[in-house]
């Protein structure tokens, strides 16, 4: 049970303001989820760069100095990978000019036991336990530029209040998913996915949704098709926001109890759990404001 | 709280004729509601910068006029009893929930469960209303200028729901004695809800509701829906409808 | 259960002694009650709806015992040394918390399910001993408000009879998510009980079946509940305590979420908790026993640092002062009684034996609260039947019973060396069975073993 705020910036002139806009949205949904929070930002200079894979790791303490991590990665990766590691707030970012899977392998060997919470060429994911606005401040969200941003504040229902249980769940390159609600048959879907070889990091119901979408996308679904299929397989109550390198999607279950509101202008698409999160956005007075219809998948591409 | 110029500058003007201004950018919702609960009949308030905040102007029990300039959050004008609340913007979930009497008028859209369980009074929504509009309504009159979402008038017990646009899926599911008038299309009717003939009394009732909501729609363009009353007594033959 | 719709010529079962003499063996799987259920279902095509709580045997307070003081601990002198029983409910956010003289409260039961006289008697009895009573689905009656010193107003999914005037008159508000007899279920009050007055209060046509919703119409989940609680606080100017009542199924999570949503008091109702009218399949098969629910709820409160700050009221099968003391030792701040209170008023009284028999039941077995033909005049709207319950005399009986529960709990608390019931703790208890030990999280008597404890 949670608060969601998501933003896709259509106008590149707004990219420098991504962090401040998302931060203003997020601070209005803190009440909905005071336990913990997570952020995903896309194409943020200084965090990710074109042609380079970046992994987001949970926490900043891994029992190894950054220089040691870097030299270990250098030894494991091809010479031109130019691996780097740095700490942003409570998150460690590791990058290298190699395929993501190769980087994952090198990180797993360098930092066994670390949890990868984000992966891809375009996205950085940051999560922590505590007051959502302190988490946002610690990671410097306010000053971040970018093309898309996604934030989630969590009131844990049936899984533990841990950073690993926070959203977004990012389980495939540049894919992120956040959820408000609760799936009622996630244990069964989890078993089915496990049988197909999917590996899980947490006991969180939302991770099942994220793994399911990733699995569908891998099998060739478009984002929209994957979410339509999710509606056929996962039961329960949900408002979901899913982002990829260049798209954002919103879907609510057919009963649609959990709230969602969308504001669309020529400059941006913004989605939040409540209108108050949208109230301070520039040009909101002239935005097209609507609530997503139950059971309907909405997608926007950059 | 800032007191605006009273409409009548005459020194004999009473407090009842003043308009009070509350700017929610720097005043908490608690202060607004406390003022409204302490209010005397005839007073007026203008509320600015609502910013989607929740529980605005709830529990009003005096004959006051409140105008909110902007969008309201959940439960605006909740449990309203007297006077009129006007929202020059959109309203969030549960607008005027359990309204007893008086009037609430939203100039924009309303989110889901608008006028839920309302016992009386009039709720006017110029724009669209979301899902479950008029759920478990118990006597309230609701006039929606636009469309309404799915499961509207679910278990509606009494009162009238007027929709000048289209209605979503499962309209009037498990309805009791409430009456529904829809001008546009109905995506589907819920269990035990059927179309019923428009008699003269219904046309005049509808005309009255439209007039009260300040609308010029022609009552003859509407269809009426209500309960088939097949679920009033448990029967094994209806078991798939429960 | 209802068997009246079966053919009347059904012969009475042979006396048990006779069947044994014949060497007949009753099936444990298909016992006589099960066979009757199948026959009833086949004859009517409708599931059985009845009142009362779960009848199956589940681990309960009977499976727990107190460790009285002897040498290592000192008891208080009974009758002389003080053992306080009062409790303050709802001080977390409300400016007017309730201060009750006994931790035994009366659970929510509606006017409609119960007669006006029964509601009045509950109010009289509770007020006499300084405790609270609770409305139910259908609103507040003047009789009830007038006779109740402390009245808790239930806020239910159906919102029958819900209005802001009564909300402001209430001493506390109880937001009901569910009840132990049917977590996740709505209600069904059959037409016989929807009299003119009941129908008027609920805005329903007279005589129809009333279906009640299982989910609130304008919020779902703890994040929206927080906003709903905010609205109720705004309407009552932050004076009135707000309880959240849950049916016990996942009480650890639900208690934590109620606290996070802003509740002042959490009410947890175990599966033995009663109901006026629900499908039997629901009553017997959904939810967890009260003794299993308490430790989970208490754990959630303790982890959030609010145990004894957000009070826990426990209900579902409380019958004696020992049950009260055991619930409190496990961590409850107060308890609520429903079925036991009706029995104290006169429900299932043997003096109506002939009338129970005429209804196909017997004193001690009557559970057709939905039918409205209660010979004791409690679960009925029939004027002749309900006039049998004198609200003054009924109130006196209830007050007597509440005094006994309180004195019994005090007796045990003194024996454990406690000068206040609230000082009872789980370490004062042991369990008689492995099941109760695992559920209540107290050691099996004579051992240090708690199955499942880390």
From TrEMBL, chain A:
PANTHER family assigned to the protein according to its UniProt record, in alphabetical order: AMIDOPHOSPHORIBOSYLTRANSFERASE
InterPro entries assigned to the protein according to its UniProt record, in alphabetical order: GATase_2_dom, Ntn_hydrolases_N
Protein name per the record: Glutamate synthase domain-containing protein 1
Alphabetized UniProt keyword annotations: Glutamine amidotransferase, Transferase
Recorded coiled-coil stretches: none
Species whose genome carries this gene: Arthrobacter ginsengisoli
Pfam families assigned to the protein according to its UniProt record, in alphabetical order: GATase_6
Entry keyword annotation includes Protease: no
From TrEMBL, chain B:
Species per Swiss-Prot/TrEMBL record: Arthrobacter ginsengisoli
PANTHER family: TUNGSTEN FORMYLMETHANOFURAN DEHYDROGENASE, SUBUNIT C (FWDC) (PTHR39673), TUNGSTEN-CONTAINING FORMYLMETHANOFURAN DEHYDROGENASE 2 SUBUNIT C (PTHR39673:SF5)
Record-given protein name: Glutamate synthase domain-containing protein 3
Endpoints of the signal sequence: none
Segments forming a coiled coil: none
From TrEMBL, chain C:
Pfam families named among the record's database cross-references: Glu_synthase
Keyword flag Oxidoreductase: yes
Region (Disordered): 124-146
Domain Glutamate synthase: 93-346, 375-418
CDD domains in the record: GltS_FMN
Keyword Glycosyltransferase among record annotations: no
Gene3D superfamilies registered for this protein in UniProt: Aldolase class I
Family classification: Belongs to the glutamate synthase family.
Protein name: Glutamate synthase domain-containing protein 2
């Amino acid at each position: 049970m949670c608060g969601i705020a998501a933003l896709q910036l259509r106008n590149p002139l707004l990219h420098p303001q991504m962090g401040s806009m998302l931060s203003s949205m997020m601070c209005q949904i803190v009440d909905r989820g005071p336990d913990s929070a997570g952020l995903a930002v896309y194409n943020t200079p200084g965090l990710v760069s074109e042609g380079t894979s970046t992994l987001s790791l949970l926490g900043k303490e891994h029992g190894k100095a950054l220089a040691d991590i870097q030299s270990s990665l250098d030894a494991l990766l091809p010479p031109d990978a130019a691996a780097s590691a740095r700490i942003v707030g409570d998150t460690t970012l590791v990058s290298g000019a190699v395929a993501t899977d190769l980087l994952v392998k090198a990180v797993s060997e360098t930092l066994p036991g670390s949890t990868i919470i984000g992966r891809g060429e375009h996205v950085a994911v940051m999560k922590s336990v505590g007051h959502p606005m302190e988490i946002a401040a610690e990671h410097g969200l306010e000053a971040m530029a970018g093309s898309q941003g996604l934030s989630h504040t969590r009131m844990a229902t049936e899984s533990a209040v841990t950073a690993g249980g926070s959203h977004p769940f990012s389980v495939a390159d540049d894919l992120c998913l956040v959820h408000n609600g609760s799936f009622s048959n996630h244990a069964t879907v989890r078993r089915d996915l496990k049988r197909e070889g999917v590996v899980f990091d947490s006991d969180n119901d939302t991770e099942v949704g994220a793994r399911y979408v990733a699995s569908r996308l891998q099998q060739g679904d478009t984002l929209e098709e994957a979410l339509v299929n999710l509606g056929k397989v996962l039961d329960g109550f949900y408002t979901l926001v899913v982002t990829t390198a260049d798209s954002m999607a919103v879907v609510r279950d057919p009963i649609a109890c959990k709230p969602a509101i969308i504001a669309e202008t020529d400059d941006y698409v913004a989605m939040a759990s409540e209108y108050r999160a949208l109230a301070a956005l520039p040009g909101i007075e002239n935005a097209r404001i609507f609530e997503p219809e139950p059971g309907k998948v909405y997608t926007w591409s950059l | 709280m800032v007191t605006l110029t009273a409409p009548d500058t005459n020194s004999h003007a009473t407090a009842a004729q003043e308009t009070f201004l509350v700017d929610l950018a720097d005043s908490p919702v608690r202060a607004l509601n406390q003022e409204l609960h302490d209010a005397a009949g005839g007073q007026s308030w203008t509320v600015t910068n609502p910013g989607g905040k929740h529980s605005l102007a709830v529990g009003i029990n005096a004959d006051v006029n409140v105008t909110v300039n902007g969008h309201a959050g959940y439960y605006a004008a909740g449990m309203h009893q007297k006077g009129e609340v006007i929202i020059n913007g959109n309203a969030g979930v549960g607008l005027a929930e359990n309204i007893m009497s008086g009037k609430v008028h939203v100039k924009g859209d309303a989110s889901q469960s608008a006028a839920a369980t309302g016992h009386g009074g009039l709720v006017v929504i110029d724009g669209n209303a979301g899902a479950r509009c008029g759920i478990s309504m118990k006597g309230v009159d609701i006039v929606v200028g636009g469309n309404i979402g799915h499961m509207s008038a679910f278990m509606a017990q009494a009162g009238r729901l007027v929709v000048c646009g289209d209605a979503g899926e499962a309209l009037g599911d498990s309805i009791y004695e409430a009456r529904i008038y829809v001008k546009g299309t109905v995506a589907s009717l819920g269990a035990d809800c059927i179309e019923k003939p428009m008699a003269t009394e219904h046309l005049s009732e509808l005309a009255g509701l439209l007039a009260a909501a300040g609308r010029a729609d022609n009552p003859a363009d509407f269809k009426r829906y209500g309960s088939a009353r097949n679920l009033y007594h448990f029967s094994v033959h209806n078991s798939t409808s429960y | 259960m209802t068997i009246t719709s079966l053919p009347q010529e059904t012969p009475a079962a042979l006396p048990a002694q006779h069947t044994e003499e014949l060497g007949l063996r009753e099936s444990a799987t298909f016992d006589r009650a099960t066979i009757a259920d199948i026959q009833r279902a086949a004859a009517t095509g409708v599931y059985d709806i009845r009142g009362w709580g779960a009848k199956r045997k589940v681990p309960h307070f009977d499976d727990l015992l107190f460790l009285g003081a002897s040498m290592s601990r000192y008891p208080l002198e009974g009758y002389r040394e003080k053992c306080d029983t009062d409790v303050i409910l709802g001080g977390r956010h409300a400016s007017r918390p309730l201060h009750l003289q006994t931790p035994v409260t009366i659970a929510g039961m509606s006017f409609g399910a119960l007669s006006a006289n029964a509601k009045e008697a509950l109010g009289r009895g509770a007020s006499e001993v300084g405790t609270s009573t609770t409305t139910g689905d259908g609103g507040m009656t003047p009789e009830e408000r007038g006779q109740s010193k402390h009245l808790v107003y239930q806020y239910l999914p159906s919102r029958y009879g819900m209005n802001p005037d009564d909300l402001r008159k209430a001493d506390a508000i109880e937001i009901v998510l569910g009840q132990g007899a049917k977590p996740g279920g709505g209600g069904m009050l059959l037409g016989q009980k929807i009299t003119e007055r009941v129908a008027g209060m609920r805005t329903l046509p007279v005589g129809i079946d009333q279906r009640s919703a299982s989910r609130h119409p304008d919020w779902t989940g703890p994040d929206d509940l927080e906003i709903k609680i905010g609205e109720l606080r705004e309407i009552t100017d932050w004076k009135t305590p707000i309880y959240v009542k849950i049916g016990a199924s996942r009480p650890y999570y639900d208690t934590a979420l109620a606290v996070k949503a802003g509740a002042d008091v959490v009410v947890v109702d175990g599966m033995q908790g009663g109901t006026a009218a629900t499908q039997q399949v629901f009553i017997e098969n959904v939810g967890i026993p009260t003794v299993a629910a308490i430790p989970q709820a208490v754990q959630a409160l303790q982890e959030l640092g609010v145990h004894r700050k957000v009070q826990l009221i426990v209900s579902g099968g409380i019958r004696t002062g020992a049950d009260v003391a055991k619930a409190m030792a496990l961590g409850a701040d107060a308890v609520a009684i429903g079925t036991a209170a009706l029995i104290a008023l006169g429900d299932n009284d043997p003096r109506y034996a002939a009338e129970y028999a005429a209804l196909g039941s017997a004193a001690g077995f009557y559970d057709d609260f939905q039918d409205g033909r209660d010979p004791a005049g409690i679960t009925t709207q029939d004027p002749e039947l309900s006039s049998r319950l004198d609200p003054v005399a009924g109130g006196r009986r209830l007050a007597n019973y509440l005094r006994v529960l309180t004195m019994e709990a005090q007796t045990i608390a003194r024996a454990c060396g406690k000068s206040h019931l609230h000082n009872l703790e789980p370490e004062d208890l042991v369990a008689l069975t492995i099941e109760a030990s695992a559920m209540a999280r107290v050691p099996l008597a004579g051992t240090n073993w708690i199955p499942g404890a880390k």
